[in-house]
Amino acid sequence: MAEYFAGMEAGGTKFVCAIGDSSGQILAEERFPTTYPQETIDRSISFFLNKKTDWDIQLTSLGIGCFGPIDLDRSSSSYGHITSTPKPGWVNANIVGPLSEALHVPIAFDTDVNAAALGELKWGAGVNLENFIYFTIGTGIGGGAIINGKPLHGLIHPEMGHIFLNPNPDDTYKGKCPYHRNCFEGLASGPAISERWNTSPQSIPTDHPAWDMEADYIAQAMSSLICSFSPQKIILGGGVMKQYHLFPKVQRLTQVYLNSYVQSDLIINHIDDYIVPPRLGDQAGVKGALALALDLDR
Amino acid sequence: MAEYFAGMEAGGTKFVCAIGDSSGQILAEERFPTTYPQETIDRSISFFLNKKTDWDIQLTSLGIGCFGPIDLDRSSSSYGHITSTPKPGWVNANIVGPLSEALHVPIAFDTDVNAAALGELKWGAGVNLENFIYFTIGTGIGGGAIINGKPLHGLIHPEMGHIFLNPNPDDTYKGKCPYHRNCFEGLASGPAISERWNTSPQSIPTDHPAWDMEADYIAQAMSSLICSFSPQKIILGGGVMKQYHLFPKVQRLTQVYLNSYVQSDLIINHIDDYIVPPRLGDQAGVKGALALALDLDR
């Protein structure tokens, strides 16, 4: 009998819900904007319940890749909640609870970026790798890491968007992050670009200096993360990275920052194979959520 | 029959050679300054050969924790060598080769900081932890990581001393690292302190502003690394951290930098249990090298 798995990418901009099979193929999918917790979670629940009824199927498990910070400690009273997010309305939002009550299935819960990294490990740019990093650069900035083939959690979970960067001397913008001056998310997220240049990133032409500054911040972050993790690859997804002209700039500037200190042929001579877009494209997040559900079943 | 293991901490300042048993107890140890490769390695070989003869024993294996960057790829022609170090005379130095030829034992080779982390995992401040970071802050700055109970290697190995920091606006010093402006090692290593203040760190009084600046740089690095790895603990060793008055300053400033974004009771309320000195003290490096030798045997 075919098994059906549920995946939910709970992003800061949009939610993506999907039902897939054990090979990761998506059989049905719905995308909608992230408004407020009750409305957005209710809409997710309706999607899954309707599909169960319409198709007359059972769901084996649900994987949720969620924007954060989130509580992953199953012994904690706030397990499955978002914690200290700057996103209005979502502080302490319970994500796992209402889905568990409505669907009665085992739930795997992880960060959106760890989920996306897992999806890329199974079916995308991370196949056959043991150690790599996945970043989303969009409304927020977050990084997930696969280490020895598994998502990294540690004490809570990484918050790679909040590493500190050196502000460009020409940059008078004070940063978007309410917690930190000069962190990666504060200087380089989509909203930071909008606020700094007083226009939407989509409307900024590709030859505008905004993109040189953006590439510089991303490259600075990549250099520090390469020195921290020594990853075999870095995958850059998210809305901002849809500006594909950023890739060659980020690749070149990362080489400039590292200055040949890390003696890797891959980084020095083939960086276009090293800092890459997600192979799963827009489906990295939701396929990652499906991957979480599949892993729970094994 | 008792087994004997050899450990060698090949540091940028000193080498420590030891013979130990399977419980990690050190039975004989010798320390000498790091001069030039042939002289220093010959002295290490003599130590091991003399002990073998004097005690009439066989060595089961040798673990080497080495300053870097080093080549850990067993399929590479420069496996077991130091690669691009700024240390004069040691570029491309072959470490494993001469020891292997002289001693005829299996050799485990890793970074000095991964070895020290492994030693702390087995017998020190990392017992019962799955994910933590060990730093040495001394002649150079390096970090090793234990992830899911194992040393992290990745593409090559981490070089955490080369993450970028924000220079203090009052700091006119240009940095000691020949590869990077503004990296952690360039701004905060022992030689950087010496050059910035034009005196040896040991002679700087504890109430001198040099230590506030040093603590600030270390705390900045710790904040970025906590956001990157979400470690369960950070162990800070090395010559500079013998200035134990730095610990409370680093702990407090790390909290200031993180600004309660990472919602961990341990970090917010018990940071003196979170950023700690090595429990193995001066023996972290050489006991770590023994731990490498022991792991090879299993």
Structural write-up:
The structure is a homodimer of 298-residue chains. By secondary structure, the first copy, chain A, is of the alpha/beta class. Chain A folds into two domains: 4-115 and 282-297, 2-Layer Sandwich (Nucleotidyltransferase, domain 5); 128-277, 2-Layer Sandwich (Nucleotidyltransferase, domain 5). Chain A contains nine helices and ten strands. In chain A, strands 3-2-1-4-5 form a five-stranded mixed beta sheet. Chain A has a five-stranded mixed beta sheet with strand order 8-7-6-9-10, sandwiched between helices. The longest helix of chain A has 21 residues, at 209-229. Chain A starts with a strand and ends with a helix. The model of chain A has no long low-confidence stretch (mean pLDDT 95). Chains A and B meet through helix 6 of A and helix 6 of B.
Q: Can you describe this structure in just a few lines?
A:
The structure is a homodimer of 298-residue chains. Chain A has 298 residues and is of the alpha/beta class. The first copy, chain A, has helices at residues 37-55, 96-103, 112-123, 184-188, 190-197, 209-229, 246-258, 265-269, 284-297; strands at 5-10, 14-20, 26-33, 61-66, 107-111, 132-137, 141-147, 150-151, 234-237, 275-276.
- Rg of chain A, alpha carbons: 19 Å
In CATH terms, what is the fold-level topology of the largest domain in chain A? Nucleotidyltransferase, domain 5
- What's the CATH first level of the largest domain in chain A? Alpha Beta
Number of strands of chain A: 10
Percent of residues of chain A in beta strands? 15-25%
Helix content of chain A: 25-40%
